[in-house]
Amino acid sequence: MNKFFLMKKTLIEMDDKVNTFSRSSGVLIHISSLPGPYGIGEIGNQAKWFIDILVKMNQKYWQFLPTNYPENYHSPYDTNSAFAQNPLLISLDNLLEQDLIQKRDLSPIPDFSRNKVEFEKLIKWKIPVLRKAALKFLSSSKEKLEQYEKYCFENSFWLEDYALFMVLKEKNDNKSWLEWNEPSKNLDPKYIELVKKKELKKIQEIKILQYLFYIQWVELKKYANSKGVQLIGDIPIYVSYNSADVWKNKTLFKLDSDGKMIFQSGCPPDNFMLTGQVWGHPIYDWVCHDKTKFIWWCNRMKYLMNYVDIIRVDHFNGFAKYWEIPAEDANGLQGQWKEALGESLLQVLYDSIKNIRLIAEDLGEAAKDAGIIRRKYNIPGMQVLQFSFDEDDPLSTMENDTILYTGTHDNETSVQWYNNIIKGSNRKNIDEKQNKIKKVLQSDLKDIHWSMISFCMSSTASIVVFPVQDLLGLGEEARMNTPGTIGDQNWTWRMEPGLLDERVMNKMSNLTKETLRK
Question: Do the Cβ atoms of 360 and 379 come closer than 8 Å?
Fold first, then answer.
């Protein structure tokens, strides 16, 4: 019996023990990173093109970052709503097909970068186009308007408040809601009703754009599922302070009587940041959430499950315990661990949302604490290969239902990671690290990205996910985000047209078959 057959036999036996996810693999790329002519990836033809690529490569999953509307620095993990979607991702070609805009409305199309989202240029050009589409939609057929009204009714638990929040934000010079005039900040009933009547057109526009995103997404998800591809969405555990959720639900967060944050989110010192990280989100008042039977969380999860097949919970560890930092601090050194009520939350979620499927991003110091509740609810955890070379057998402790990544959106690309290792100043240390990597991967490291992908695909991990940057062998120019930094290098990378060619697709397809995935 040859070695490869033994490996296959072992993989089949391990697969029998996986109780939630079958042996498979997928690709991580955010929608904004897709190629296309309009400056940003969109949820129309470009997204369908990528789904077809996944099918050719025998991939079962497409994982992307949160699709909510970013609040600060264009980060999809810092959003102005836990529910509202990013209208910049709406497909313009789809709007043309629906006759909601004309080609002349797009002219002139700016000379957008092919490998970077230029957000300021994009917003200046695309938002007016979207507003034209929203205005035209108001003259749609009776049937379409009835479908829109049905959507508004079914989403009334967040949509009306969100639209009002965005209008009031504009009326208050786009300042944080804490700095708004008193009637706006404290939701004075008479004032709010007056604004709703006076700004009806703007409120409708915001709601229509959310509806247009929704109907395009429904079509996209239907297309993906018909091709055997499942969508893995991403839910940030926190929301931005300057969000409709915090403004409308102040008691669910640790705020003082004036609405100011008492504590903020972050993490303790680690290998990324020696002084810890300050994320700046408001901290949940878990006792208050418990008293409401976690209705806000249930609504949030249930809403996202309409869009995706599986939810990756970013910073799942925060369901077990979280790092609470005084609001005035500029680093995480003075933070403290606090216990959350994640176990109670998960019980309510699984009782009330029958089709819910979760993946836990459980990297970091609180992973052991999170592991207790994760295993109780049979939620797969994560492991990142880049972090796993301290031992001779980096995956020896890996659970069978683990979701294994070569890297994530917060990591260096695999090529960048390896190049930084061999650029060290100490030749002896470089040689030791190279030898360890060679031993683990059983590879000459000529194509480090393929060596890492192949290693992961051959592992006993239930699902393997690799960023498209690793599939393409791209370096530091393609990194999506560097934690703890702010700038236009984050969240802006785009895949240039033509990079994902037949050679790459065929190689990935063959590897998937050889390792018995999908």
Answer: yes
Both tokens assigned to 9: 């036999």
Distance CA 369, CA 303 (A): 28
Amino acid at 233: G
Backbone angles phi, psi at 85, to 5 degrees: -95, 160
Q: Are 23 and 459 in contact (CB under 8 A)?
A: no
Q: How far apart are CA 454 and CA 441, in angstroms?
A: 9
Cα–Cα dist 142/148, whole Å: 10
Weakest-pLDDT range from 223-237, 307-321, 429-443: 429-443
pTM, to two decimals: 0.94
Confidence at 392, pLDDT banded by 50, 70, 90: low
List, as one string, the DSSP characters of 43-97: SSHHHHHHHHHHHHTT--EEE----B-B-STT-TTSBS-SS-B-GGGS-HHHHHH
Neighbour count for residue 398 (Cβ, 10 Å): 17
Greatest distance between any 2 Cα atoms in the chain: 80
Structure tokens at 307: 């869009």
What is the C-alpha separation between 67 and 40, in angstroms, rounded? 13
Mean pLDDT to the nearest integer, 75-82:
94
List the structure tokens of 68.
Answer: 């909510």
Q: Which of 22-36, 175-189, 278-292, 411-425 has the lowest mean pLDDT?
A: 411-425
* DSSP character at residue 26: E
Residues paired with 310 in a beta bridge: 232
d(CA 79, CA 85): 9
In 242-307 the beta strands, taken as DSSP E runs, fall at 263-267, 277-282
**Phi, psi (degrees; rounded to nearest 5) at 191:** -65, -40
Residues catalogued as catalytic: 314, 361, 410
At 17-26, the pLDDT tens digits run 333 688 999 9
How far is the C-alpha of 337 from the C-alpha of 339, rounded, in Å?
7
Dihedral sign for Cα 322, 325, 327, 330, please: negative
The residue-averaged pLDDT of 180-195 equals 96
Sequence-separated (6 or more) residues with CB below 8 Å from residue 240: 71, 72, 78, 79, 80, 246, 281
- Which amino acid, 13? E
Instruction: Write out pLDDT tens, residues 299-326.
Output: 999 999 999 999 999 999 999 999 999 9
What is the sign of the dihedral through the CA atoms of 478, 484, 488 and 490? Answer: positive
Residue appearing with tokens 């009776």: 142
- Contact by Cβ (8 Å): 24, 517: yes
Cβ proximity of 359 and 232 under 8 Å: yes
Which H or E element spans position 145? helix 142-154
Residue 167 and residue 175: Cα distance in Å, rounded? 12
